[in-house]
Predict the 3D structure of the following.
Amino acid sequence: MAGSLIHGSTTIHYLDEFEVTCALNAADIAIDRGVIDARTFCGNNQVPGNRDSMMSFGGFGLFGADDYEEELAARMQSGANVNRLTIFGNAAAARVYEILGPLGKASHAWKAAEILGLSGEIPKGQSLTRGVALHVNSTFTATGAQTGQQHEVTAATTQVCVATIRVKSVSGAGSVTFVVQESQNDGGGDPYANIATMSATFTAPGIQRLTVSSATELWKRINISAFSGFTNVVATMIVGTQMPA
Amino acid sequence: MAGTLIHGGQPGFVHTLNAVSLCVNSLDVSINRNVVDARTNCGNSQVAGEVSTEVSDSGPCGFGAGSDEATKFAHMIATAGQAWTMKPKNAATAADNPQYAGTLLGTKFSLKLTPTGNVEQSFAAKLTDSAGYPTRTTS
C-alpha cells in the first residue's frame, strides 16, 4: 500500500468552529478539473481547464444550541461562507482538507422509524486547502511555543498559505492570541519566526482563517503570545496550501 | 486458452502515475474510437474516427509521504499531464506482460468517508497523447 490507510471512525469534522464529528456518518470530497477538448484539424489536443472542489456531508440532525442542525440552518439562511474541515486522523500531523464556500444545500430526511437525518453540501466551485493538523482539540492554559509540524514550502505570489484557528470552547472570560511561526528545519539552526499577518486574537469561541501570499518555510508551529483571564482554551488548528483555481 | 490468465492481486498489476506506483483495488481503462456512420444510399459504411482514452481507479486511500493521496492531489494541482503506465504484473515487460503508457490529465479525485470503513478514493483522467490511445509495448 502506498501510504497508510485511515479508518473513517478516526476522522474529525468541523463546520467553522463547531465540531460535527458525532453528527455525521458520511462525507465526500471531490476535486474536479475540466479537460477541454481542443481538437482541431491539426489533431487531438486536450487542454487542462479550471479546477474546483466540493464537499458534501450527511448524518443525523443533532438538535440544540450551537449544535449541528442550528449551525447548518444559520449558515443556510445567511449565505455566509462556511469553513468545512475534515481531518484524516484525530491527532496533530494528520492530513487535512478544508474548503471555504457558501452552503448550497441543507436536506432534512425525516422518517417515522428512523433517526432524523440532515445533510449539507458546499457545491462545486470552491478552492480546497490541503494541509496538516497542528493541533486537534488541544487544551491550552498559558503562553508559549507549541510543537511544530512539517507542512511544505510555499512560494511567493503563486501559492497561498492558509492557517485556520478554531477556538472550540473557552473556560471563563479572557483573551488569547495565537501567532503562526515558520522555520526551515523545526528550529534546528533556523529559529522559528513569526509569519507576518498570521496572528489571531480570540475572546470567545470562533474561527479565524489567516492567509499569506509571501513565501513560507517548511515547518510551521503556533506560539501563544498572550493568554489572560481564561482558565483554558480548547482549539483546533491547521496549516495548509490553497489549491490553485 | 491462448495466452496467460493473470490474477489482479497475485502477483498484482502495476499502475503508476508520475513514476509512483499506486495501490488500488480496481483500475479501468477505456479506449474509445469514434466510429462515424457514413451510410449513404449506396450502402452502409462505418468509418474509423478519432480515438480517446479514459483511465479511472478506485480503492482504499493511503496517506503520508509518497502516498496515493499525495500523488493524486499533486497531479490535480499540476498544470501539465503526467506519465502513466500499467501492466498486468510486476515483472519485465513481455508479450504476456504488455505495458500500456501515456500522459494523463486528471479530471476528478474524490475521497469518501464512512464511519465503518477506511477512507476510499476514486480518480479519473483523460489521456492527452495526440494519438488518443496509449502506447503498448511488449519488450
About this structure: The mean pLDDT of chain A is 93. The first helix of chain A runs from residue 68 to 78. Residues 30 and 88 of chain A are 15 Å apart (CA to CA).
